[in-house]
Amino acid sequence: QVHMVESGGGLVQAGDSLRLSCATSGRSFTNYFMGWFRQAPRKEREFVGGITWTGGSTYYADSVKGRFTISRDNAKNTVDLEMNSLKTEDTAVYYCAAGVVFSTRSRDYVYWGQGTQVTVSS
Length: 122
Prior knowledge:
Elements: E1 3-7, E2 10-13, E3 18-25, E4 33-39, E5 46-52, E6 58-60, E7 68-73, E8 78-83, E9 92-99, E10 111-112, E11 116-121
Parallel strand pairs: 2-11
Antiparallel strand pairs: 1-3, 3-8, 4-5, 4-9, 5-6, 7-8, 9-10, 9-11
């Protein structure tokens, strides 16, 4: 099974930037769709963005479009989420996930990391 670990979360102020990284091990993630999700307390898990390993395409939720950027390093099997102009509403636990097809639904992803907390203060 694939093991995924997120890192880079922390406490920042609104307007700051933060870079999250998802490191993977086990099976190769080539041909997997990699997604970033987030979940705030008392809220449903929300799709943030995704990236294909071989196609070079990225996808973003409207709420983060223009502020967040997903990148990949296939040699290291990592997927990063660069978050700029952070807002208090970005506060959540951020998860990386992998699936065989692209989807904005969390149920369509089969491998998940443990999550990393991002807290944005005003």
